[in-house]
Structure formats: structure tokens, C-alpha cells
Please model this.
Amino acid sequence: MQAQHAQPFPTRWKRPPVLFTHTVWRRVIYTGALIYLVLAMQSIEIDWQRVYMGLDRGWKFVEGFLLPDFTTRWHDIRAGLIESLTMTLTSTVAGVLVSVPIGIGAARNLAPAPVYLACRGIITLSRSFQEIIIAILLVAMFGFGPFAGFLTLAFASIGFLSKLLAEDIEACDGSQIEAIRATGASWWQVVNYAVQPQVMPRLVGLSLYRLDINFRESAVIGIVGAGGIGATLNTAIDRYEYDSAGAILIIIIAIVLVVEYSSSYIRRWVQ
Amino acid sequence: MTGTLSTDTTSGPAWQYRTPRQSLLQWLGWFLLVVLTVFCWQLMNENTIWAFVSDAPDQAMDIGSRMFPPAWGYIGQLWEPLWDTINIATLGTLIGVAIAVPVAFLAASNTTPSTRFVRPLALLLIVTSRSINSLIWALLLVAIIGPGLLAGVIAIGLRSIGFVAKLLYEAIEEIDFNQVEAVRATGASGAQVIDYAIVPQILPAFWGISVFRWDINIRESTILGLVGAGGLGIQLSASLATLAWNQVAMIFVVILVTVVISEWVSARVRQAVI
Model:
């Protein structure tokens, strides 16, 4: 009985675990993770011979990236770039135009319940599938080319912008809405005079951010036939023209950088 | 009578929110945006065949009727690709995170060894990784190391580096520096300062970012197979090639359920950690 009290003062400090503070659970989770890792590793078959053969090609790609060839395929690259850039702008504008009414409809403090549910439904539908899958379906319906890409990006933009806009409207300062309403303003006037001034800076910021995302995505959806620089890139890689592919990648990175920095600059200026 | 306050609004200029110059500039800005959009629209649709576009409702009906009902029995062939997809996402996230952590420490302005040489290099790495979509990485890697899961894992890993490193270095830059000073005052070495003062502060952010990226990676790895990098996408491209739309619909259902579950898991974990 008395021996229990004779615990020496600890001379060493051990840091307590941050995650899974219960010892048994921690061990169970770590063992489970280890077993999963071993199983997952086994599902990967590595054909070392193929990898070895590919090293040569990989080196050619690195060379192509360091010494890009802009001129040989410049005509194709230019056409792809124009498609991508025009697609980006038009789809962002169309996405913003459609997502403003949907965003207002999906804000709980402005819309009646049936409208709210319908708009939330549209947002969920648009957000649950990613761009590539939408592009596959739209290319099948509208044929190859940038028009299908435009629709894909506009559709994806609607989910993104309306959701964030609706959240922003819901987070609006309620006292301003109440003040405008107290003057006898109609619903439209409330939206115009109390909500719109509060959310406008953020809406501009979100649109610019989406412009940035849409350009990145426009470089990808070309792989399934929706036009843009992605199609050009796919062709270049299929032809094993790694120097042209490197040039296209450098152009994509450069444009993404320019769009990202200018959009963050404008956002800071607006907000 | 003098001294009465004038309530006559017609005298003097009416109050305006903007000066004429400002409102003119704003109007000009919107006008330019409209012009640019119309111009882009024209340029984009130069080669559009409108007959195909007007035909779209019929095509949609046709595809819709072929998709429904989904080939429920096809699920038997989808379990293995689904397992592959989850593995691609998880292993890819692990690789990405393992590389992203040192890169983040090199890129954060308060932990980088040299702001002149190492930091720009780390930032360049982050930008390169971030601006190229994982599907494009997969396209390149399939050409280089051949089709299969490995290309998918590496593609996901390469794409994750930039995302994780960017969010993590922003978290490192926002830490409370007093704790670093306190630990340093005990005579701790550089590694010990990182271990005892910085890591505990960014650990919640780290887990949140990693799980968030894992969730995105599950989404992305479902379609990597379109370019041959393993997973559900391989079945998807096979079904698309044979125009087996009811199988395509089944794959969409599987993808949707997987994405919803992974999103739920990631939301729960982030809630628990942060």
C-alpha cells in the first residue's frame, strides 16, 4: 500500500502524443495503417524493364523542357492557346452571369425554401462531377471543339461561384438588411441596396479566382476532345515531340503565373 | 429669415457616390469587358458547327436513354479498379506530402536557410507542380515509364507537392515566434527548435491539408486511367470506346459514391483535428 506513494519524481519528460491520445486506439490505428500500406504496395506492379527503357525517354523530356521548341509547331500551339484563352474568358463570364441568380437563390436569408432547395440541388449537381467527366458527356452531345469546353467550364464555374456567393450572402451583416427593409424597400431593393454592396468585392475576387482555375482546367479538358491547349499537348506527346510538349508546358506555367499574380493583385486592389 | 437651415435639395450639387471621372472609368471598364467577351466568343466559335450544337438535345436524349438503367451487374468488374484508385490516391498523397514538407520549410521565409537562393528555387518548384494538372503529369509519365499504377501514383504525388507545400509554408509563416524564441533560449539546436517549437504549431494545419489533398486526389485518381495510369478511368475509357453507355453510367455512380464518402471522411477528420 505504501509502496505506491514512493514514486520517484520523473527526471525525464516525454512529449505526449498529439493525435490518438488513447494508447490502445493509437496502436490499432497504426497497425491498420501499416497493413493497408503493405497491401496497397502489392497492388502496384512495377515493370522495371519498362521503367529502364523509359528513362531514355524521360531524359529526352527533360531535355525538351530545358531546350523547348516553340517554332516547329507554333501554328498548332497558337491555335490551341487562342482556344484556351477565349474559352477561359467566355466561360467565366457566362458562369458568373448564371451563378449570381443561383447564388442569391441558394442563400437561406433571401430565398424561400423551395427556391433554396432547387438552387442547392443545382450546386450539388455541378460540384459532384469533375470537369473531365462533364467534358466527356458534353463532347458526346455537342461534338468536338471549344464550344463543348466552354459549356464544361461554365457549368463547373456555376457550382463553384454560386456556392461561395451563397455562403457570402448568408454571412452578410443582417442589420444592414433590416435597416433597408425598415425603409419599406421591396425584395429587389433589399438585394440591390443592402446585399449587393456587401458581397460585390468578394464576387469580383471569386470571379478572378475562377478565371485562374478555368485556364488551368482548359489545359486539361482538351485531352478528351473539348479543344484548347490540352489537345495540342496531347498530340505533341503522342507524336513523341517532347521539345514541343516542353514548350507548351512552359507556356502554360507562364500564363498560370501571370493570371495568378495579376488576379491576386486585382483582388487586393478591389477588397 | 436668415439662419434657417435650407432643406432645398435642388440648390447645390446632389450627392454622388463617385466623381464623374470615376464613374466614367468604371463604365469604360465594364464596356471593355463586354467587348472583349464578345470578341472572344466570335473567335472561339469560328469553327463551331452549329448543326451539331442544335442537335444536342436529341443526342442528350439518346445518350440518356442508353445510360438508363445503369449496368448494375458491371460492379463485379469494378471492385479491383476501385481498390487501385484508392491506392493511387493514398500512396500518391504520401509521396507528395513526404516531399512537400522539406520544400515547405525551405520556402517559408522564417525557416528558409537562404532567402536569396533556396527560397526562389523552392517557390519555383511549388509553382511548377501546382500549375500542371495531375492528368497532364500522368500523360507525361505514361509516355515515360509506361502505363500502370506507378505512373498514376507519381503523377498524383507530383501534383500534390505544390498544393501541400504552398499551404504548409503559409502556415509556417504564420506561427507564433515567441515559442521559437523560448525554445531557442533553452539552448536547443536548429533541429530541436523545429521539432519542439515549429512542428507542434503547424501539426493541426498539416493534418488538415494532407487529408484535404487526399480527398482531392481520390477525385482526380478516378479519371487518371483515361490516359492509361490505372484505376477506374481505364474501365471508363474502355466503356466509352465501346459506347457501352450503361456501363459508363455505372462507373459514374461508383465514382460519385466514392467521392461523397471520401469528402465525408475528410470533413470529419478535419473537424476532429482543427
Notes: Chain A touches chain B through 59 residues (CB under 8 Å). The mean pLDDT of chain A is 86.
